[in-house]
Design brief:
The chain is an alpha+beta fold. The protein folds into 2 domains: 33 residues; 141 residues, lipopolysaccharide transport protein A fold (Sandwich), CATH 2.60.450.10.
């Protein structure tokens, strides 16, 4: 083999080894740098166990009464999580509404409450239940005095049982609007 070919092969090998070492060394320098903090820490800025929160209107009348096993507020998205929420909603001209669920959350506006799993909303008249609504998801707009769901709902009243996909319940007007696939049994008196 001529000397010229040996030198060419040796130069190619040295170049390949040099490139490999350079790539390896560059990779090490990049990996030695600390990773940038790209994830935001998502921990509550306040929490409360066995919480009880009351809200009053401008006249000093009780507007809502919320109890929960725990309340946790998260500043990164301004959402407050609720464990076992128990909510009473009051208005001047209508019977109070009582709503319970397994979990829930208060959205950033502070007026919208989303309840999930085993949601039961009842309208009370004295100590007796006037109306009961069962669903698995319900959004309560406390500033507008109505509740809304697009999920299946069962409504039980003294005169019968109604089932529907979705509803809107307006507290002050004592009015329920069923959205679709409504079916029911009504007892005449």
């Amino acid at each position: 083999m001529p000397l010229r070919q040996i030198l060419l092969i040796a130069a190619i090998v040295v170049f390949a080894v040099g490139m490999g070492y350079w790539a390896y060394e560059t990779d090490l320098k990049v990996s030695r740098q600390p990773a940038a903090a790209t994830t935001e820490i998502k921990v509550p800025d306040f929490f409360s166990y066995n919480a009880h929160v009351r809200e009053f209107d401008e006249k000093g009348q009780l507007k809502s009464d919320l109890t929960a096993d725990s309340i946790s507020h998260f500043p990164h998205n301004e959402i407050t999580l609720l464990a076992s929420p128990d909510l009473w909603s009051y208005s001047e001209n209508a019977a109070p509404w009582h709503t319970v669920a397994d979990t829930g959350r208060i959205l950033p506006d502070g007026e919208t409450v989303e309840l999930k799993k085993n949601v039961v909303m009842t309208q009370m008249e004295g100590d007796t239940q006037k109306l009961r609504m069962d669903t698995d998801f319900l959004t309560i707009y406390s500033d507008q005095d109505f509740a809304d769901t697009n999920r299946p709902v069962t409504i039980i009243s003294p005169s019968g049982v109604m089932k529907a996909n979705g509803m809107k319940a307006f507290y002050k007007r004592d009015f329920i609007q069923l959205k679709s696939r409504v079916r029911g049994v009504h007892e005449s008196r």
